[in-house]
Specification:
37% of the residues lie in helices and 22% in strands. By secondary structure, the protein is an alpha/beta fold. The chain has one domain: Flavodoxin domain (Rossmann fold), CATH 3.40.50.360. A five-stranded parallel β-sheet has the order 2-1-3-4-5, with helices on both faces. It is globular, with a radius of gyration of 15 Å. It binds flavin mononucleotide. Its cofactor is FMN. Low-potential electron donor to a number of redox enzymes.
Length: 158
């Protein structure tokens, strides 16, 4: 697939094995509005430099594995992202997991911690398994936090 590098638009990078996190990435894209984010599912590390070129924001997501960990195969992608991302690009981290496991969506926390060593992570989103219609508000909140750096619920409280 040819990768364009001249478009300025949000970028969604997502790692998914059985489709739940890919479905979440697609719902985020649908709710993100204009300009339409580019979604890259299970990207190759060698493509990250091109993918990140022109990114106005980054939403990066994964499922959780092991004991709430980032899947091993996603780590080279993460390293490439850290190498190529610009400091001033807003970053949000999302993921799916299963509450059956003690560390629900632990990979979201790990990913957020790893990225926070290099950039500000403005928003996180954890969804159980396949996203449902009831998850729409959480996704909208995630997008709001990413774009404004504020939590809409906290704002209403003040
Ligand atoms: C062996 C195994 C370990 C898992 N460990 C966790 C975990 O520690 N925490 C969690 O929240 N979910 C865990 N999960 C659940 C997956 O993260 C969850 O099913 C996720 O939605 C899969 O995403 P995908 O469909 O995008 O691959 C585990 C699943 C498997 C099969």
């Amino acid at each position: 697939m040819a990768l364009t590098n001249c478009n300025r638009r949000p970028v969604i990078l997502c790692y998914s094995q059985t489709g739940n996190t890919a479905a979440l990435a697609e719902q985020i894209r649908e709710l993100a509005g204009h300009p339409d984010p580019a979604v890259h599912l299970n990207p190759h590390p060698d493509d990250i430099k091109t993918v990140m070129n022109g990114a106005t924001s980054l939403m990066i997501g994964t499922y959780s594995w092991g004991d709430g960990q980032i899947p091993e195969r996603f780590l080279p992608v993460l390293e490439a992202v850290i190498t190529h991302m610009k400091q001033d690009v807003p970053v949000g981290v999302f993921g799916t997991g299963d509450r059956f496991y003690p560390s629900f969506c632990g990979a979201v926390d790990e990913l957020s911690a790893r990225l926070s060593e290099h950039v500000d992570v403005l928003a996180t989103l954890k969804i159980e398994l396949m996203p449902q219609a009831g998850d729409t508000n959480a996704i909208r909140s995630f997008l709001h936090q990413l774009h404004t750096g504020t939590d809409p619920i906290t704002d209403n409280d003040s």
